Structures are given as C-alpha cells and as structure tokens.
C-alpha cells in the first residue's frame, strides 16, 4: 500500500514547483529582451547596447499614458484605460527605437564596431538620466500594477495567472516574429539586407526602410518584456535597465548573437541559473549576477560564437 506524502515532502514539492514557475516566467521575459538584441545584430551587425534602456522606457510611458488617458476620460482606474496605456507605451517605444536609429545609430553603420558600442552605451546612459530628471520623482521607484491577478489550480499546485499570461504572450510574440521573418515580404527583405545590403539595393530594397522596420519590431517586442518585468517586480525604476539590459544581452551572447532560437535558449539558461542561485545559495539575491556572468564567461571561453551561433570565416 503506497504511503501518503508527508507534509514536509508536500511543502518541498510546492517550493520546487514555484521555482520552476519563476524560472519559466523570468526566462520568457528575458527572451523578449534578448530577441531584440539578436534581431538588431543579425540585420545591422551592430551591438545596440542601449536596447535594454529603450525596452525599459515602456513602463514609464505606460504610467504617463495612464495618467493622460485617465484624465481625458475621467476614469484612470478602468482596466480599459490601462490596456490602452500599455498599447500606447508599446507603440511609442517602437517609434523611439526608430528615432534613435535615425538620429544616432545610423551614423555608425559603416564605422568600426567599437565606435558603435561606445555610442550606444552612452545613449543608454542618456536615456536613463532623462527618465530620472524628466519623469516626476524619476529617481524613486514607482509602483507598477500586476497586469493580471489570481491563480489557476493545476492538480494541487496553484499557478499565477500572470505567469501563464507572460508565457502565452511571449510564445505568441516569438511565433509572430518567426512567421514575419520566414513568411512575409518584410521578413524576406530583412534577410536580404542582413546578408548583402548592396545586392538588396540592386533588387529595389531600401535598406534604410528595413532598418527602421527592424528597430520598430525589436523595440516593441522589448517594450513588452519591459512591461512584464516591471509588473513582475511590482515597480518601475529608472535603473532597472542596467541589470535587465545586461541580462538580455548576455542571454543573446550565450545563445549566439543573431540567432533567434539561441536568444531563447540563452534566456532560459540564465533565468534558470538566476532562479537556482536565489533559491539555493545563502543571500543568493546578492550574488545571482556573479553566477550569471560566470556562465557568460564560460560560454565565451569554450564557444565564443555562442551555443547556437555560427563561426564566421573571413577570407583575407
């Protein structure tokens, strides 16, 4: 006759299940940021290091949109107002990404990679400081609501609806991105420009238009990740983009810059390590980034092109 599970064993199962949920939720959020890094590098061959800062503009734009739309409609607490504010924030973030490309990043398309890297690092600092000084009380954390609340019971486990929504929306974004890249005219043009810009021009493809479209898509997907992260943390902070941007970039590097599947795998690996360290290591929250970047160093030492990246051979 089988024995009933002990209360201690049941509690341990609950803890393990909760950590798995945290892992998948964080991995989905990081993947949305990492996909933007890989997409932009794959098309432009430029590391847009301020992509994380652009993505984390979205929570502040959403809070501003809630205030503006709520004042106009007289009902700031309405769920419809909040959903509209989220849509506005995602769209505006995409537009800001395009504007940054036009004003700054396009100047470095033919420049050495180091110049573009330094320029985008400086651009990220500018964006953070603008939020800190222009947004009301921008230096302080701002409460950001959980997008959905409640739990769903699966067997004897409770799964937050928020986590299910994050995973579902992330999967939908990834599927939409893959469909766009492989099944639409825009996707074919993006691939053509990424492989040979001069040949694309000969085929009447405007690389400038493709760059702008790519920046909009990458920034909008990153904005979804930024909104999810602030909702997961329960707040929006001007310096969140430092950690989240570095983790998103690291996930793209671990998976292989330019590889969409690699960005997803890298995000899940980093989120899994992040969650494991916080659950197992004493005071793990303080040391989680140490372990994350040790993983990044190990991957770069043993496989510089990333887990799914391809080594490029240049003939001289």
Automatic annotation (TrEMBL):
Protein name as it appears in the record: Putative inner-membrane translocator
Stated membrane topology is: Multi-pass membrane protein
Classification via Pfam families? BPD_transp_2
* TM segment ranges: 20-44, 56-74, 80-104, 111-131, 161-181, 210-234, 246-273, 285-302
Q: Which UniProt keywords apply?
A: Amino-acid transport, Cell membrane, Membrane, Transmembrane, Transmembrane helix, Transport
> What is an example of a GO molecular function annotated in this UniProt entry?
transmembrane transporter activity
Give the UniProt family note.
Belongs to the binding-protein-dependent transport system permease family. LivHM subfamily.
- This protein's species is Azorhizobium caulinodans (strain ATCC 43989 / DSM 5975 / JCM 20966 / LMG 6465 / NBRC 14845 / NCIMB 13405 / ORS 571)
Instruction: Please state the protein's primary subcellular location.
Output: membrane
């Amino acid at each position: 006759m089988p024995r009933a599970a002990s209360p201690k064993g049941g509690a341990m199962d609950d803890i393990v299940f909760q950590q798995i949920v945290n892992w998948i939720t964080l991995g989905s959020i990081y993947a949305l940021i990492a996909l933007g890094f890989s997409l932009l590098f794959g098309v432009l061959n430029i590391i847009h290091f301020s992509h994380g800062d652009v993505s984390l503009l979205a929570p502040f734009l959403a809070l501003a949109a809630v205030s503006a739309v709520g004042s106009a409609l007289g009902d700031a607490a309405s769920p419809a107002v909040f959903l509209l504010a989220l849509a506005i924030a995602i769209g505006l973030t995409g537009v800001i990404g395009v504007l940054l490309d036009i004003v700054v990043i396009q100047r470095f398309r033919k420049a050495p990679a180091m110049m573009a890297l330094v320029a985008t690092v400086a651009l990220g600092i500018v964006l953070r400081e603008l939020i800190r000084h222009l947004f009301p009380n921008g230096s302080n954390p701002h409460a950001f609501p959980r997008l959905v609340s409640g739990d769903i019971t699966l067997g004897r486990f409770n799964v937050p609806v928020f986590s299910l929504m994050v995973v579902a929306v992330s999967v939908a974004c990834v599927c939409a991105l893959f469909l766009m890249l492989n099944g639409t005219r825009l996707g074919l043009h993006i691939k053509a420009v990424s492989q040979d810009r001069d040949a694309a021009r000969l085929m009447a493809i405007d690389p400038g238009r493709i760059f702008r479209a790519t920046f909009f898509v990458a920034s909008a997907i990153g904005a979804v990740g930024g909104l999810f992260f602030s909702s997961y943390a329960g707040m929006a902070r001007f310096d969140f983009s430092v950690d989240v941007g570095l983790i998103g970039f690291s996930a793209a590097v671990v998976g292989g810059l330019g590889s969409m599947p690699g960005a997803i795998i890298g995000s899940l690996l980093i989120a899994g390590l992040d969650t494991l360290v916080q659950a197992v290591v004493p005071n793990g929250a303080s040391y989680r980034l140490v372990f994350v970047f040790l993983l990044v160093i190990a991957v770069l030492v043993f496989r510089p092109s990333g887990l799914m990246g391809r080594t490029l051979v240049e003939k001289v």
